[in-house]
Design the sequence.
């Protein structure tokens, strides 16, 4: 670094915490030996840096390639994720499981973007992204009369006006809740829900199909019914809720919740999804799931959707 540029980093307070390293003298280390181009691409498939020619017509053609800048951003997100679960005091085995889940989510989201022929656009209001390429919706036969579905049953909104829905045994008649239209009975699925932090109240979770639909009993409430698990927001507080037991959740600037259901391994994890796409774990439940599970939402005086 020349003295003129070095002075600013030494004298200005804004640069005081910036680490300075020696400049790279031999740039050939960053140059493709085959094409003599600078390596500006990261090949995910081979975990190496390559040049543009390699990624387009060379030995890495057809591989999953991204820019080095994008790879750096993903690495920083991963390091933040690791730091978060380390601070949470988790054992090594739990950390490994969560890291596997993290990469699983990245894999699912990437494949959903690439497989647009079998999935709707990621800009849909409430998007369910699953490893098997299916995008389920909310079930209108279960929706409470004070909830409105829109955007092809992917957005749910609370209304003070009672809707004239046909009577159904599967419809919730007291608690403002709705279930997904498709049960998950194996494998791993991931979906995201955009959530507001306003004066309303909401729950994002899962439950089996035996949850009660009529009356004010606990067996009809998501998070109270034993075979239901959720993240709940009420009066500015976010908690994980299962079988009437609430656990506090650190949720600064919560904007979107990612839900990863690993049915086969008995793990349900909730993530905070930042606007730039990074993930931070909110809470993880472990349970031996024996019945098919449905995505479940509860909404009061607000709406749930995905941009």
Sequence:
């Amino acid at each position: 670094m020349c003295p003129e540029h070095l002075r600013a980093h030494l004298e200005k307070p804004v640069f005081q915490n910036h680490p300075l390293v020696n400049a790279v003298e031999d740039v050939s280390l960053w140059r493709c030996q085959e094409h003599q181009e600078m390596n500006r691409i990261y090949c995910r498939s081979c975990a190496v840096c390559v040049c543009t020619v390699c990624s387009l017509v060379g030995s890495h053609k057809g591989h999953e390639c991204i820019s080095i800048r994008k790879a750096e951003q993903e690495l920083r997100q991963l390091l933040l994720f690791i730091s978060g679960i380390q601070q949470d005091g988790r054992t090594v085995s739990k950390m490994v499981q969560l890291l596997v889940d993290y990469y699983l989510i990245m894999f699912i989201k990437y494949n959903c973007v690439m497989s647009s022929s079998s999935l709707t656009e990621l800009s849909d209001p409430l998007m369910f992204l699953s490893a098997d390429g299916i995008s389920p919706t909310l079930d209108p036969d279960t929706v409470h009369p004070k909830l409105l579905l829109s955007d092809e049953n992917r957005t749910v909104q609370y209304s003070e006006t009672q809707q004239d829905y046909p009577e159904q045994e599967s419809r919730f008649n007291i608690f403002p809740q709705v279930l997904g239209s498709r049960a998950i009975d194996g494998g791993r699925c991931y979906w995201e829900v955009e959530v507001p932090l306003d004066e309303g109240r909401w729950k994002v979770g899962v439950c089996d199909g035996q949850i009660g639909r009529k009356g004010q009993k606990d067996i009809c409430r998501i998070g109270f019914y034993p075979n239901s698990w959720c993240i709940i927001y009420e009066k500015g507080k976010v908690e994980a809720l299962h079988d009437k037991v609430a656990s506090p959740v650190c949720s600064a600037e919560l904007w979107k919740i990612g839900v990863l259901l690993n049915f086969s391994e008995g793990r349900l994890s909730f993530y905070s999804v930042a606007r730039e796409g990074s993930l931070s774990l909110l809470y993880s439940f472990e349970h031996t799931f024996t019945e098919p599970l449905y995505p479940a939402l509860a909404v009061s005086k607000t709406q749930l959707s995905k941009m």
Summary: Residues 114-304 form a domain with the Jelly Rolls fold (CATH 2.60.120.920).
